Amino acid sequence: MCADVNNSNSQAQTGASHAEFGREISNMRETVLMPRRKPTTICIAAICNEGSSLVLATDSMVTNEGLSIQFEHPTRKMTHLSDSCVALTAGDALAHTELFDLVQTKIAALKAPSIVEIVSEIKGCYQSLREQEMKERILIPRGFDGFKQFYEAQRILIPELVFGIQKQIDDYDYGLDIIVAGICAGTAHIYGISNPGTSKCFDALGFHAIGSGLPHAINTVIARGCHEATSLEEALLIVYEAKKTAEKAPGIGARITNICILTPQKLMEFPRNKLEKLHELYEAWVRKESNWMGGVQELLNEIGGPTK
User: Fold this and answer.
1) DSSP 210-238
2) Domain boundaries of the chain, sorted by first residue
């Protein structure tokens, strides 16, 4: 009789243990594996002027999932990494700030870094911060000091628990997409960097976009036939149109448009107080009026930018 009672108690404890374990696995997936929302923003880069120049554009929407905020901020979403290189970001604003604080420290130690070297530094910092965030959000709360301790402990852990934690690690999204655009030796380059910290070169395509407005922007650039031989003047209007078209996507900032132009001679941030004039010239271009080219050249001269 006592044996039966003890056996029943043991089974009950085992059942409770399994139930508790099941709840732990369920909670683990609910709290950590929830997919991040696609960044509600738009960032665009296009190569032009016989492959020597770049036109960049973004909105000013800022998001942070932890604080559940989304608003247009007057700060430009463009980080200058050198005199001829700019990074555009889509995703968590706090992750972007932490990443580029670290990146700029690394780049400062390099002498006249190339675009390839800058991209390499960004990837390294991205991967390092992503790994640290995974450790803090996945491993430490479950009693592991880091990846080494977790992998060493796998042989004595319940397989389901190992699988659950490993899946969280494999699926972890740092929540940040980046465009790196710059000029090296008179040639324009575009790179994209995304989770888990890998890069692709978009030079052959000649343009790239990130954020929730990507389909609208890319369709515009393709429909307008923008390519590396497109003049700087026309590329400026195409990228402007792509940004305005992307505003039709949910969450894209329509109040502020940021534009940057890179040429072999200089990097120029387009003044916001000149956007109204740019829009007038854009409308003239759409109407195929003959004077739009001269108008854009005059505008570029006003802001101190070369037209050739």
Assistant:
1) ESTTHHHHHHHHHHTT--TTS-HHHHHHH
2) 43-110+176-302
Cα(84)–Cα(105) distance, integer angstroms: 17
Q: How far is 207 from 201, CA to CA, in rounded Å?
A: 10
Query: Would you give the end-to-end CA distance of the chain in angstroms?
Result: 97
Q: Please provide the CATH number assigned to the domain covering 43-110+176-302.
A: 3.60.20.10
Residue with tokens 């650039």: 221
Hey, what amino acid is at 43?
Answer: C
Residue labelled with tokens 């700029």: 104
- The pLDDT of residue 152 is 93
pLDDT tens track for 57-66: 999 877 666 5
What is the per-residue pLDDT across 201-226, written as a single tens digit (0 to 9) for each?
A: 999 999 999 999 999 999 999 999 99
Quickly tell me which residue has 């080219």 as its tokens.
293
Q: What is the mean pLDDT of the chain?
A: 86
**What are the residue ranges of helices labelled H in the chain?**
2-32, 93-108, 115-134, 147-153, 159-171, 214-223, 232-246, 275-286, 292-302
Tokens standing for residue 164? 């659950």
- List of residues 6+ apart from 88 with CB closer than 8 A: 43, 45, 56, 58, 77, 78, 79, 178, 179, 181, 210
Alpha helices, DSSP H, located in 35-157: 93-108, 115-134, 147-153
Cis, peptide link before residue 141, omega less than 30° from 0 = no
The whole-model pTM stands at 0.84
Task: Give the span between the Cα atoms of 237 and 72, in whole angstroms.
Answer: 23
Phi, psi dihedral angles at 174 (to 5 degrees) = -70, -20
